[in-house]
Hints:
Blueprint: H1 2-15, H2 27-39, H3 48-77, H4 84-116, H5 125-152, H6 161-172, H7 176-200, H8 208-217, H9 249-257, H10 263-267, H11 269-272, H12 279-293, H13 312-321, H14 336-339, H15 347-351, H16 358-371, H17 378-390, E1 421-424, H18 426-431, H19 433-448, E2 453-454, H20 465-470, H21 473-489, E3 494-497, H22 500-509, E4 518-521, H23 522-531, E5 545-547, H24 561-571, E6 575-576, H25 605-615, E7 620-623, H26 626-638, E8 646-649, H27 650-657
Parallel strand pairs: 1-2, 1-3, 3-4, 5-6, 5-7, 7-8
Amino acid sequence: MAVAGYGIYRHLSSWRRGLPAARFDRPVERVQMVLRHALAQRRTARNRLAGLFHRLITYGFIILTIATTVVALDADFGTTIMRGNFYLYFQSFLVDLFGALVMVGVGMAAARRYLRRPKMLVYTNEATLILATIFLMCLQGFLIEGWRIAVTNDPWGAWSPFGNAVARASVALLIVEAMQRAHRSVWWFHLILSFGFIAWLPYTKMMHIITAPLNIYTASLVPLGATLKNIDFEKTESFGVNSLKDFTWKDLLDLDACTECGRCTEVCPANIVGKELSPRDLILQLRDLMHAEFRISNFGFRNDESRAHESSNDSEQSAIRNPKSEIIGAVPATAPVPLWQCTTCAACMEACPVFIEQMPKIVDMRRYLVMEEADFPDSMQQAIMSLEKRGHPFSGTNATRLDWTDGLSIKQIGETNDAEVLLWVGCGGALVERNQKVTRSTALLLEQAGVKFAIMGREEKCSGDPARRIGNEFLFETLAKENVENLNRNGVKKVITACPHCFNTFKNEYPQYGGRFEVYHHSEYLARLVDDGKLKPLSQTEKKITFHDPCYLGRQNGIYDAPRQLVQISAAGNATEMARSRAKSFCCGGGGGMSFVDEPASQRVNQERAREALETGADVLAVACPFCMTMMEDGINARKGERDVKVMDVSELLLEAVQPLGG
């Protein structure tokens, strides 16, 4: 116990080296999180096989731990808990049953690991030894119990079905005398192995028994789109993260909470299309660096058979070669190339069963590269320079903020005093020709519904989302403060936008700068107008429609139904879902500044998503984001020979369905 306690203390000491983080508010919600995800294991159970055997092992261990504690209390403290029905139903039958279920669970885990060999797993000697030790401890328990029943002729032995089976087999084999001699030896071996396992636990990935519930309790309770931290530029000397001590204590706890399940990498769009980025390897290699720097040994058991990530020995050598403890480039997963492949879609965070926050760590390291080293891709640099000089990221365009209004009577915010809402057009909606049509559709629908609205016009600047996700936090803060000041000065209270990135920024990030607005994605607002009878759909298309969930609308802000409502209005019941949809939707590849990067054709996320859309047999691919519009049109065009599919925004679908103006 002392060895285990020391190991836990070493972990605690390492986390305390991180920066402060407020993660103990709203305790009732946090306890509920632990019950749902640590005890009930809802996210783990998404994979049915893994969820089943993990629950068998977990619940079995809980029951066996309670039973062992009861035995210790009766034997050492004179309590009388093991009496009557409790002894028969719990201490005999239930403990026996769950002991067997643990062995079944271990067998299932071993079969999956060594026969099916899923790509997402990390194959280490440590994992093998852990499974073998758990199985052996349970087997020893049944041998000890069975031999006791056989020797003492326990009248209640039948209440322990598996132990009783061992007893009968031993009697049948005429080895009663032998087992009398072996019982004490096996008992001592079992005791030593059990205490050895407890002592070893903090130095292995089994530490997640402790860290996973703690990590879930301290998980972020805000939407995924609100998880990036602000930088206090007046008090911070170094911007971004290039040292473990630049992370918060919660970031460091994340590293120790990882169960090595690989679910994050399994859903990572960059990794799926063959890029180097692996959220799992990022966390594991940072963990190994932390253990090397803070002297937490794993006794050499984490030698990686599959080369999925560096072993601890390799990471320790990296720490020796890197006396300044810089983490960017110290291991393969933190090299600049994979860091610049992240689309910030947060699929990794949504999939993680223990609520590790991978994406914010990537953005933190990007911040260091951008603001401290000025080391980031040329195409992203052009976008940043355009943001600084022109207020939008499209360096090559000659379009203006008002081009899309040609032929329309759209009022700017300074020209009217009776606007109910502000239509925030966004850079894509104003300056990209294809998305200008979406903005016109939205404006026409608002006019038809009798909504009094205005636009910022020439006063509008980028919300700052690309700057923040690329890593230029200073530029983001500058744009955010300027926009909030401008909107507040004009008395704006309610904002509609067709861009989920702008929506996320207004809803989740601007409040920290004094921008507290009532924010709607255009799909939400238009769906409400339909529900209120202000827009009346009159026609439907016979074409088959499938909808692509934007990451910043769906997964990061939980809005799934409103855009689907608009699709259903148009589709005449002929709407279909892609294999990956809603919270499990696959990214278009345009987030995190990646829409400004020209990638190799073989590694384009949008083409993978286009393939999935084509497989549905849909005639129309509906989107609800200007970035998704651009990326999905490019993806569909790249696969033009397969089928002719039209990409349309949900507002365009609705405009086709409603009564025309003047009708």
